[in-house]
Specification:
alpha/beta; binds magnesium ion; binds 6-O-phosphoryl inosine monophosphate; binds guanosine-5'-diphosphate; 10-stranded mixed sheet; 20% strand
Length: 437
């Protein structure tokens, strides 16, 4: 049984949590493959709302094994807090598995993240302040600590003795007050290790054995394509690979084990943090969308910037992820918006540009070329078939599909699982296995 990847096609917060939730019934494993507690995925279970940061959305379903893959950076303190909070709400967290190889976010990573942003001032990335960048930097520099290190006092001491003088020197140079000593951190880390030990496994074999058995594995991305370290609007990006390719490096699978890449996008665009956003709205229409769509950051509580749907970036995201199917979320939020504008190309320095530029500088100079669509006024939360959507909504969905270049198979008209229009949808249970089983 092959694997499915769920990937964000915009700047994050596309509703990946809702999409994973919709697919959960048919899934045995949900594997997070990158990012850390910078993510905020909202899932509704009945009337209850769960906001998950590090724990994969699959935790809410007793039949699913939720897995934190080796590509994820883990802050043990926030992971334990999240597990405790879920347990307090009656969720069984004992099935959670996390890779020995996950890199750790330690207190000095957060301190460095905040110190750098403070120093960058007007040029800051607008990070979540969770230490994501500094932790991935240490991974690449080969000076990081991993979850497996929490189980060994000798290794902890050795690595922290080596790394902390440099961290303290950098913090001092950045004008930050925080300093870190090895011993209290070793004690703290050993306590985290004792608590997390039952969850730690070799994720690569866990996932490979599952696929070989014929279990269905869903790989859940965090953030979105336009925040990808290599393919996003650098430097206003996160420090990992949210794109589908990241599911292989961060989830422990190979490209031939994937048979479906679900791209998730909203019917409009949002962005949190700094960086260019060509279709950004600074008027009452944008405010109305933000209000109805409750566009407030799940992790930091910051207001999300809102804009029109950008087909230039969507086409790019569909290509770079080899998207096979799209789930379109939050169509209901556009009820009452008229006209609805769709960005089909940019004007940059007087030239028409159809391809998403890799330079953030160029993107910042891009002016959108819009095609306008008639809106619809009625609420659509209760619609369950495409035929019952207002004509104008159907025309807009068709245009999004044509511009994006991949089939929209699911359309979401509300946050709950049942508020979903199933269109040309190919359920996992009906698939013919092609690889690995
Ligand atoms: P994620 O980070 O991609 O998982 O997305 P977030 O959870 O941060 O943000 C998406 C928000 O939109 C959540 O509050 C969801 O409950 C909500 N949501 C998802 N799909 C829909 C939809 O179709 N309609 C409405 N009204 N809300 C939705
Ligand atoms: P989910 O998974 C939206 C943004 C931050 C900032 C940039 C870098 O819920 O879609 P970082 O802390 O990662 O170094 O910040 O990335 N960002 C997100 N924006 N949704 C997210 O996650 C995000 N995770 C990070 O706002 O601009
Ligand atoms: Mg989110």
């Amino acid at each position: 049984m092959p694997a499915t990847i769920v990937v964000g096609l915009q700047w994050g917060d596309e509703g990946k949590g809702k999409t994973t939730d919709f697919l959960a019934e048919q899934t045995d494993f949900v594997v997070r493959y990158q990012g850390g507690d910078n993510a905020g995925h909202t899932v509704m279970l009945g009337d209850e709302v769960f906001k998950l940061h590090l724990v994969p959305s699959g935790i809410l379903y007793p039949h699913i094994v939720p897995v934190i893959g080796p590509g994820v950076v883990v802050n043990p303190a926030t992971l334990i807090d999240e597990l405790d909070a879920l347990a307090a709400r009656g969720i069984d967290t004992s099935r959670l598995r996390a890779s020995f190889a996950c890199h750790l976010i330690l207190p000095y990573h957060r301190a460095l993240d905040v110190a750098r942003e403070t120093r960058l001032a007007g040029a800051k990335v607008g990070t979540t302040g969770r230490g994501i960048g500094p932790a991935y930097e240490d991974r690449a520099a080969r000076t990081g600590l991993r979850l497996e290190d929490l189980l060994d006092a000798r290794i902890l001491r050795m690595k922290l003795d080596r790394v902390l003088p440099e961290k303290n020197a950098v913090l001092a140079a950045l004008g930050a007050e925080a300093r870190f000593e090895p011993e209290p951190l070793v004690e703290q880390a050993l306590a985290w290790g004792r608590r997390l030990a039952p969850h730690l496994v070799d994720v690569t074999w866990l996932v490979q054995d599952a696929l070989a058995r014929g279990d269905h594995v869903l790989l859940e991305g965090a953030q979105g394509t336009l925040l990808d370290l290599d393919h996003g609007s650098y430097p206003f990006v996160t420090s990992s690979s949210p794109i589908a390719g990241g599911a292989c490096t961060g989830g422990g699978i190979g490209p031939r084990q994937v048979d479906e890449v679900f791209g998730v996008m909203k019917a409009y665009a949002t962005r949190v943090g700094s960086g260019p956003f060509p279709t950004e709205l600074a008027d009452d229409v944008g405010l109305g969308i933000a209000e109805r769509g409750r566009e407030v950051g799940t992790t930091t509580g910051r207001a999300r910037r809102v804009g029109w749907f950008d087909a230039v970036s969507a086409r790019y995201a569909v290509a770079v992820n080899s998207v096979s199917s799209i789930m379109l979320n939050k169509l209901d939020i556009l009820s009452g918006v008229d006209p609805i504008r769709l960005c089909t190309a940019y004007q940059v320095d007087g030239r028409r540009v159809d391809a998403w530029p890799s330079s953030a500088d160029l993107l910042a100079r891009a002016t959108p070329v819009y095609e306008d669509f008639a809106g619809w006024s009625e609420p659509i939360h209760a619609v369950r078939s495409l035929a019952d959507l207002p004509d104008a909504a159907r025309r807009y969905v068709t245009a999004l599909e044509e511009y994006a270049g991949a089939p929209i198979v699911l359309v979401s008209v509300g946050p709950e699982r049942t508020q979903t229009i199933e269109r040309a949808w190919r359920p996992v249970r009906n698939r013919v296995p092609t690889v690995a089983g």
